[in-house]
Amino acid sequence: MDRAALRLILLGVFLISASSDPVKKEQNVDVYSFYINSTVTSRYATTVITSRVANTLNESQEIQFEVKIPKNAFISKFRMTIEGKTYDGVVKEKEEAQQQYSQAVSRGQSAGLIKSVGRTLEDFKTSVAVAALSKVTFELTYEELLKRRLGKYELLINAQPMQPVADFKIDVHIQEKPGILFLEVKGDLSTGDLANAITTTRADKDAWVTFYPTRSQQTKCKSCGEKGMNGDLLITYDVERKNPKGDVVVSKGYFVHYFAPSDVPRIPKNVVFIIDRSGSMQGRKIEQTRLALLKILSDLDENDHFGLITFDREVSFWEHELLKATETNLKNAKSFVKEISDRGATNINAAVLAGVEMINRHPREGTASILILLTDGDPTSGETNIQKIMSNVKEAIGTKFPLYCLGFGNDVNFDFLTKMSLENNGVARRIYEDSDADLQLQGFYDEVAVPLLTDIQLKYPGGTNLTKTSFGLYFNGSEIVVSGQITDNSVESFTTEVIAVSKGRNVTYQDTKMTKDPSDVPPENEDFLQRLWAYLTVKQLLERQVLLEGQEKEDEKKEALKLSLKYQFVTPLTSMVVIKPQEGEVEVADKPKEGEAPHSPPVMHSHHTTQGHSSTLGYAHGGTRNRGGGGGHGGSRGHAPQKPGYGMFLPSSEMGFAGIQYMQTDVDQNPPKEIPTYPAPKVDSAYFLLPVDGQSKPLCFDVPCLYKLRLLEDSASEFSMYGEYMWRFSKIAFRYKTDHRLTITKNVITYHHGQNQVEFLWSQEPTQHISEDVSLILRNNEIDVTMGNIRVVIFLHKENGLLFLWPAVQQQPKDGSLTGILAKTDATYEEIQGSQTPTLKINDQEVNASWVDVTDYRRSSKPVIKCWLVSFYAVMQRDISDFIIAKL
Ligand SMILES: *[C@@H]1O[C@H](CO)[C@@H](O)[C@H](O)[C@H]1NC(C)=O
Ligand SMILES: *[C@@H]1O[C@H](CO)[C@@H](O)[C@H](O)[C@H]1NC(C)=O
Ligand SMILES: *[C@@H]1O[C@H](CO)[C@@H](O)[C@H](O)[C@H]1NC(C)=O
Ligand SMILES: *[C@@H]1O[C@H](CO)[C@@H](O)[C@H](O)[C@H]1NC(C)=O
């Protein structure tokens, strides 16, 4: 418990320092050399960053080292060299590392060093005390297997040395046995003045890229400044693929098989897009989704069949069947997409099951079926039990086709999506809330746009300890990679065999003549294949963890841990412990977990949080200051430098966790100032009941999100009633003519008329205030408000200890001049008989309805009645955004 608290405290330190306080670099630290050396052998990239720094001060000080590495990579080595002595990080089991850390904490050593994770990169950051006029060398190594996407590999190198460096070098050497097809250098460091600093040399099987910017170039580029460069080099390339059976590399008893045939016809696909249009998709997210879908529809092949499903509480179909991607169908689908707008809660269960059902009804012979779910929130409607949803979906799909889940933004339960997609042979991808979200969505679609093979089985007679060998689908532009050991290192008897289904027929790829080419692997990294195998094995074991239970889960976890320790990978199961020169100083580096992008910290309505959370963050803030004055860089001048330096890299999932906790704002308080996107309601949302003429069963609807709402407005009589709504009303404000203002909160009722002000408390004796055309009558827990010819009663209700307001319109002008959510009085509907799910016809449209119990808050007795629940849109025929106002 204590540790969790501590982590949260450090988390706060990060949030605050990262957003507001870029590390201050003092002039008395000289980064005199900075090298990044990356070697890629058969797609396995090993990168070494070496930074040499001098303390030019005549006293000792703390010197920082901070770099960003690709998220997919495992750190495998960290070393500091100070005054001829080296200090190596050692990878240990997480708990053990944690113990060492805790002991250090108990000795009172603290300075927050935090590791975080962003969209493509994660931070590694450390510091060490360096004596007067001495030097330190930091060396960090990380490894990753480059993944082929959309027909290319990408090696991303981030460079941010924090100051112009006299001797700055990036060296990249790529060696690919089948030959390099093309190679491009991109990224913001490859533009402008810096482009001149790049050289590219190509041979048949090798490519070298160097980037040696001069000191002055390092200050002149677009993303550069006084602090030198800050940006990325992105090297993209692909290899030749002359052999459709794939490319096998063998070294020291290990092999890797890259299989990516492209000479196969595309398989027509059946794709169903299941699109979340719940209230939280409001604004840019839904716009970007529409944009991406329109583009995706344009890219469909004419032999593809497709379906579109949108969902909130209800599930809507463009068409109930999969239809061929003909010009007419696409045109109609696009009109449907343009109309998608956000509205209610999130019924993931019903929507996915509807998608599965749609594919199942469609003939699938000779095609590849794909289900794509896009959502930005937790299931909040229909079946909301995540375990149940997963088992429903798994049973319905029955391994027949994959489910891909795209989690949009920070409020998704990404673990749930990951698990659900892995259980159904798909993957989950995060869509970051950013200006390019539509491109991210399209990018994902492009990766799965062209299926070439299905049901792929890879077999390796003579091979053992294989990584995954069975794949449901292979898409053009991607690659299947299998690695393993060769039994008894007998290369002669080793063969590869791939069996798959291609456009309705079985295909086999067999490769037997496996000559060991001694030039496969240069001697200096002949261990790379073993490491590649270990990397892939650990990644796959970790991925499978979410699917397993009991002993099997434990066994695989143990295996992943064993390999992580053996190969010194910093994985989610291990941490790297660095013992620093000063006695007793320990640093622990963890692999951060994807949680929340650090650039979008949770919205902080600090005064709306519950006590516990806000105090946590308050403390965190103090922590920052303490740190600055202690071992930190900024405050080091003139202080004794031998402060215990010591830190821990925080998995930022805890940040996400804190973020979400933070969002569980107290419903009882004022709602936030802006319209944020919210996670699931923490209380059941209330329903709005509609008076229905001449029908016995009333209609009800809910308001999908937390807004300031236009409830009633009448421009003719200059009347308005607005409410602050967070699943209940917390405040209601009236304006009438120019000089009447009435504000009702859960405590107090304030009425202004010109210069005069009257104030009532809910708790006081009944009273009234009556003037020419305004009357206010306060009774027990209700106030009866009449302004001109409009009369509304506001009730103060209490439920589960929570106070809230609810308006009931008693009288309004019949001329129809009123607008606003509560102005709607004339909804009529027909029940459609004989449909499978309850369906009503409202405004000539068929809408799904459910027969629910609601509490009628329009009466003081709060009776529970039955009503037909339909969506906001179905009743109002307008988007909720038409009823949102900025200010009460
Ligand atoms: C990069 O690594 C290669 C191979 O280990 C080595 O030969 C070369 O000198 C290194 N380059 C730099 C700039 O460190
Ligand atoms: C450090 O420099 C200051 C002034 O720059 C000088 O007064 C002091 O004697 C120096 N200390 C050492 C240990 O050289
Ligand atoms: C697969 O992609 C390659 C280029 O990456 C292209 O030449 C080929 O035509 C594609 N195959 C199909 C079936 O679309
Ligand atoms: C492909 O092979 C499987 C199993 O060997 C067999 O059941 C199936 O009929 C074959 N399909 C075709 C199209 O030949």
Shape: globular
Distance between the termini: 42 Å
Strand percentage? 35-45%
The average pLDDT score comes to 80
Oligomer category: single chain
Q: How many strands? A: 50
Strand count, sense and barrel status of the largest sheet are: 8 strands, mixed
Percent range for helical residues?
10-25%
Adjacency order of strands in the biggest sheet:
5-4-8-2-1-10-13-12
Per DSSP, the total helix count is 14
The ligands bound in this entry are:
2-acetamido-2-deoxy-beta-D-glucopyranose
Which segments are poorly predicted (pLDDT under 50) over 5 or more consecutive residues?
Answer: 1-25, 110-114, 596-683
Computed Rg: 31 Å
Q: What is the structural class?
A: alpha+beta
Description:
The chain is an alpha+beta fold. Among the domains are: 269-449, 3-Layer(aba) Sandwich (Rossmann fold), CATH 3.40.50; 629-883, no CATH class. The chain is 20% helix and 36% strand. The chain has an 8-stranded mixed sheet. Strands 17, 18, 19, 20, 21, 22 and 23 form a 7-stranded mixed sheet that branches. Helix 4 (284-299) runs parallel beside helix 9 (437-447). The structure holds 2-acetamido-2-deoxy-beta-D-glucopyranose (4 copies). Residues 151, 262, 265-266, 450, 476-477 line the site of one 2-acetamido-2-deoxy-beta-D-glucopyranose.
Spell out the key features of this protein.
disordered N terminus, 7-stranded mixed sheet, 888 residues, alpha+beta, 8-stranded mixed sheet, Rossmann fold, binds 2-acetamido-2-deoxy-beta-D-glucopyranose
